[in-house]
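Lab notes, practical 5.
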Amino acid sequence: MFSQTDFLKYAQWSGIATLVFAAVAVLAFIFRWGIRFRLVGTTGFMLVLTGGLFALSLAPLTRTVIPGAVRYNLVYDNGSTQAVIAIPSQITPTQLEATLRQAASDLYSYGRLGKPQEKFLTIRARTVLHPEPGISVPLYLGQIRRSLFTREDPQMQIEIYQDKFAQLPKSKT
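Output from the prediction step:
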């Protein structure tokens, strides 16, 4: 992933290229070259590109990585207060806790719509069991509730359903 310093370096090189295109465009107008208007368009595009790269160098683009979290898939998200993630059936309770924390970090957004009385985002973790061929049963293993308003929520509520882990298939090793 690119860091802020990388984007700043790219913005500097893009700024130099913009100045070169602007100088060539001025020369094209002086000598009445046929591509002078294309060079003006290219210079304008380079200005926009340089501005975008500079803006990316100002804003942090970091993603929090929680150690021990496993990959998950987002199954359902109403864009407001509820989400469901799918996890593998070979997960341990400690991995589930880390994965729920990772999902809470990844799914937090200032733009989540919530009614004034709704203050929490609830993310439930589930896996799918196949007791018989052709039959699938969802099994919810835990959930996390976090604030809709605070990015670093120190009071996240994690529930792990220990009794549900007994229903998981044993891994064949």
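Observations recorded by the TA: The chain has two domains: 4-58, 73-165. The longest strand covers residues 137-147.
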